[in-house]
Amino acid sequence: MEKFFNQRLLELESGIKELEIEPDFSIQRIEAGIELIVRCLATVKEHVLTKGFKDTNEEIQFFKHRKPIIVSKLIFYNSIYRIETKKPYGCKATKKYLNRELRKLKRYFDENLEFYKYYRTNNTYLDEILFVRGKHDYKLCLEPYYIQSDHNFSSSHDYKVAEIIANDMIQVYIEDQLYNSRYLDKRMAKNPNLNWTSSKTALIELIYAMHAQGVFDHGNADIKVITKKIEKMFNVDLGDFYHTYLELRGRKINRTKFIDTLRESLVKKMDEQDEK
Question: Which Pfam families has this protein been placed in (predicted)?
Answer without folding.
Answer: RteC
